[in-house]
Amino acid sequence: MFEVCLEVLEKAAVSCVTTANIAVFRPQTPGTNDGPRVWNNQLIRYAGYAQPDSDKVLGDPAEAEFTELVMKEFGWQPPNGTPGRWDILPLLLQAEPDKPPQLFEIPSQYVVRVPIRHPTNERISALGLQWYAVPAVSCLELSVGGLTYTAAPFNGWYADTEIVRNLTDTNRLNLCPEIAACLGLETKNDTTMWRDRAIVEANVAVMHSFREAGMGMVDHHTLMRNFYNWWHREKRTRGYSPGNWKWIITPVSPTANISCYLHLNKMTEYTVKPGYWYAPGWRKYWKALKGPDSAAAPAHAKPDMKSMLSTTLTAKLQAVNADKLQIVLAFATVTGNTQQFAEAIAKVTEHAGTAQVRCKGGTGHIMWGLNTDSDTMPEIQACGHSAA
After folding, report:
1. How far is the C-alpha of 268 from the C-alpha of 313, rounded, in Å?
2. Do residues 227 and 260 lie in contact, with contact meaning Cβ atoms separated by under 8 Å?
């Protein structure tokens, strides 16, 4: 696993981060909790060291707990024995869920670091900031063809605002005060907009630095314009395009493209496959490995939708005059999941009357309802997509 992960980083670096690469390890056996796992959120990430007698963190606070884990439980030590702001975390790779993961140090030649320098402000350049060039995500599971690939790390390239947020968000490196000081801004009063000005200049520095280094990066204006055009093509050709507004709209100057800002909020988020979603994560992996009930702990806990539906319907039907109740359940399905839910609902309503289950065909939105001649009968409706 380690050699393959290094290959992903190498291919991305050789291309100057202009190619997307993925390593897909063996899938999880259906009905089991097996499957290889990468415990890291990304293949490359900076360590975060919680400071004694303080709430401050040296490095990236987002990785403080993971850094503590690899140090206390797996014996990792900072490079040269001294914690630093830009220490690269080791990889924690687990081939089997019932066996402990193994720790691997990433050789320095696989980590491309980009020094962050401002084109006109030497004081910002002198802060000694940096970021790694290859964003390689490893905390997602891939679902393809009915199988779940629990380890499928892949790389893309950064949008400028992603690194700006890493550097300036208050729960990350929180560098706005330092950058503002370099700009000579008054920071005691928010009405001076010092945070906004610091973020913009950080954005200028990040974009400039990646261009100077020759590493792939897209600015947020180009990204929004390209996505907006792609989204409209998807709507025309497929009739739908799921999305989440808060993940699409840029955090810097979001209204610069007012069409994107206003129109994309009409997007609806729902599941389509093939697709990625968050893996359980290293905290649950560690708990399963060390906890008393680890053998029975599910790798990815999911709510029992049939049970939830049954409980809700039964409670409502108990207050209904069963003599007047007629039930029609209409469904459309591709995979058969919706049909199973419809049949489960019909089963729990047997005592209240005759339930009709009808397949409406197609793959569009569906609706089921409880119909009655009684004005006091509560109507229950639900809509869903057949691929959900």
Report:
1. 26
2. yes
| 202 sits in which H/E element | helix 194-213
pLDDT tens, residue by residue, 147-203: 999 999 999 999 999 999 999 999 999 999 999 999 999 999 999 999 999 999 999
Helix (H, G, I), strand (E, B) or coil at 372: strand
CA–CA separation, 259 and 225 (whole Å): 9
DSSP 206: H
Give the whole-angstrom CA distance, residue 250 versus residue 262: 13
CA dihedral 290, 30, 307, 362 (to 10 degrees): 150
CA distance 220 to 181: 26
Q: Which residues contact 7 (CB under 8 A, 6 or more apart)?
A: 23
- Output 342-350 pairs: Cβ under 8 A, ≥24 positions apart: 342/368, 344/306, 344/309, 344/310, 345/309, 345/310, 345/313, 348/309, 348/310, 348/313, 348/314, 349/313, 349/317
